[in-house]
Design goal:
Belongs to the citrate synthase family. It is built from 17 helices and three strands. By secondary structure, the chain is mostly helical. 43% of the residues are buried. The structure holds carboxymethyl coenzyme *A.
Length: 388
């Protein structure tokens, strides 16, 4: 291939230099801006982690309170966005609604195209982080035929989201604190994961200097697929299909003979237990204490046990990933399965934007434009259609 490197799937190509997220896949290590994910999940909040990812350091309490106000300032969406959402079919997939609605936001903020201006970038980042949960909750209310609940800026980021999802007009719904905490931890764990498929798309679209709403929509479309952020939905459907621990061995055999993939297992970078899955597994216990045990947990535990001892999975270093247990928690909280990829997109918005902002100030970055190895024919003679 001459001087070119042939690397399908980019298994060995660094597309950028970054100081945001560190992964050691062999050891199962994940750090945001140098802080181990375990420490952040235990001690931090999602808004604080968002600040960290975007600014490179933890905020002081004054900085955090300004940052929260900045986000709260933008949580409401234009009424015409609401009207546009009302035009979707009642059974539209929430991810489809999210992708097109956030793309539509770019038409409400045409100044977002001015991506070279750092102050303007900051404003669009705050807007996106603030509005994505509102739109996400609206997709759910739409599918239920319930009136949309507007954001309540007195609540934390995660609590406000649950409030917009589940409050009924005229009642005093109060999200359970244990569930709010679990959701906040899940948001922290999903906030960034260096150059994964959707983040690479965010950077690729951003590299052409498109506005961040359009780039977000592209990144979310990449996340939607079942091999990426759609895996949490696929896991729950798989566990439901298996239904009982007695059916697990047969299902695992079908995965081994190539008929199926064991969803929520395997990772391009982790060749060890995904540290996020370990934290989520612990978090599930706290949630089930409030909601009652999700019966599908037994199926998941049995799948993990059999797979971790089986030569097929051991040889290929296939371990549970972030998507394996997260859906069990979402389901226990009362979220519909089709909303699970949206639950990934809400916090990943922060990672996409942190990576986009980093790229916009990186002098090395140019428009992303990979090369190819051409295998087709050349210099053919054109045959008129009547002679073909
Ligand atoms: N079940 C059964 N076999 C698998 C699985 C699986 N989940 N994952 C990989 N393999 C096998 C694969 O068939 C291949 O075997 P062989 O060498 O015999 O051909 C080998 O393991 C290597 O797989 P690969 O497809 O080359 O690995 P990859 O790095 O290209 O793919 C992956 C990574 C995550 C797409 C893949 O493991 C997968 O499809 N997992 C299931 C979907 C999933 O859980 N995705 C969520 C990923 S984590 C969160 C996120 O990024 O969104």
């Amino acid at each position: 291939f001459g001087l070119m490197t042939y690397d399908p799937g980019y298994t060995n190509t660094a597309s950028c230099k970054s100081s945001i997220t560190y992964i050691d896949g062999e050891k199962g290590v994940l750090e945001y801006r140098g802080f181990p994910i375990e420490t952040l999940a235990e001690n931090s909040s999602f808004t604080e982690v968002a600040y960290l990812l975007l600014n490179g350091q933890l905020p002081t309490s004054d900085e955090l309170s300004v940052w929260r106000d900045d986000i709260n300032h933008h949580t409401v969406v234009h009424e015409n966005i609401k009207r546009q959402m009302e035009s979707f079919r009642y059974d539209a997939h929430p991810m489809g609604m999210m992708i097109s609605t956030v793309a539509a936001l770019s038409t409400f903020y045409p100044e977002a195209k001015n991506v070279q201006d750092p102050e303007n970038r900051k404003l669009q980042i705050q807007r996106l982080i603030a509005k994505v949960p509102t739109i996400a909750a609206f997709t759910f209310r739409h599918s239920q035929g319930h009136p949309y609940i507007y954001p309540n800026n007195k609540l934390s980021y995660s609590k406000n989201f649950l409030n917009m999802m589940f409050r009924m007009i005229g009642n005093d719904y109060e999200p359970n604190e244990a569930l709010v905490k679990a959701l906040d931890i899940l948001f922290i764990l999903h906030a960034d994961h260096e150059q994964n498929c959707s983040t690479s798309v965010m950077r690729a679209i951003g590299s052409s200097e498109a506005d961040p709403y359009s780039a977000w929509a592209g990144a979310a479309a990449a996340l939607y697929g079942p091999l990426h952020g759609g895996a949490n939905e696929a896991v729950l459907r798989m566990l439901t299909e298996i239904g009982h621990v007695k059916n697990v061995p047969e299902y695992v055999s079908r995965c081994k003979n190539g008929e199926l993939r064991l969803m929520g297992f395997g990772h391009r970078v982790y060749k060890n237990y995904d540290p996020r899955a370990r934290i989520i597994k612990k978090c599930a216990d706290d949630v089930f204490e409030v909601t009652g045990r999700n019966p599908l947990l037994d199926v998941a535990l049995e799948l993990e046990k059999i797979a971790l001892e089986d030569e097929y999975f051991v040889k290929r270093k296939l371990y549970p990933n972030v998507d394996f247990y997260s859906g069990l928690i979402y389901q226990a909280i009362g979220l519909p399965v089709s909303l699970f990829p949206v639950m990934f997109a809400i916090p990943r918005t922060v990672g996409w934007l942190a990576q986009w902002a980093e790229m916009m100030t990186d002098k090395d970055q140019r428009i992303q434009r990979p090369r190819q190895v051409y295998l087709g024919e050349r210099n053919l003679d054109f045959v008129p259609i009547s002679d073909r």
